Amino acid sequence: MLKEIIRVNGKDGLHARPAAEFVQLCKRLKSDVKLEKNGTVVPGKSIIGIMSLGIAKGEDVTIIVEGGDEGEALNVIMELLNKE
Predict the structure, then answer these.
(1) Which of the four, 6, 24, 28, 63, has the lowest number of CB atoms within 10 Å?
(2) How does pLDDT run across 45-73, given as a tens digit for each residue?
(3) CA dihedral of 26, 32, 35, 36, whole degrees rounded to 10
(4) What is the rounded CA–CA span in Å between residue 50 and residue 37?
């Protein structure tokens, strides 16, 4: 299992379109992905879960990745969240 704290840099944070893009990415990965904000953990494949976190630009979230491709999965997720 890998955990990484990352600051979300996208201008819209993880709302609507960026959240949908995040979920689609997670669905393509073999690893199980979760996001944590302020103690609340949601599955990366749940658009409602991601939206419920209300992640705005500049906020820190913890990415939790577990599975066969976790290293690669963490890298592509961080790349997506670092996009401005």
Answers:
(1) 28
(2) 999 999 999 999 999 999 999 998 999 99
(3) 180
(4) 10
Six-digit token pair at 43? Answer: 């599955």
Residues carrying an active site annotation: 15
CB 61 within 8 A of CB 36: yes
Residue 4 has pLDDT above 70, yes or no: yes
**Angle at CA 35, nearest 5°, toward 79 and 21?**
50
- More reliable by pLDDT, 60 or 9: 60
* Residue type at 43 in one-letter notation: P
State the total domains in the chain.
1
pTM of the model: 0.89
Contacts of 14 (CB under 8 A, 6+ apart): 8, 22, 50, 51, 53, 55, 61, 81
Q: Tell me, what CATH number does 30's domain have? A: 3.30.1340.10
Q: What residue numbers bound the domain in which 15 lies? A: 2-82
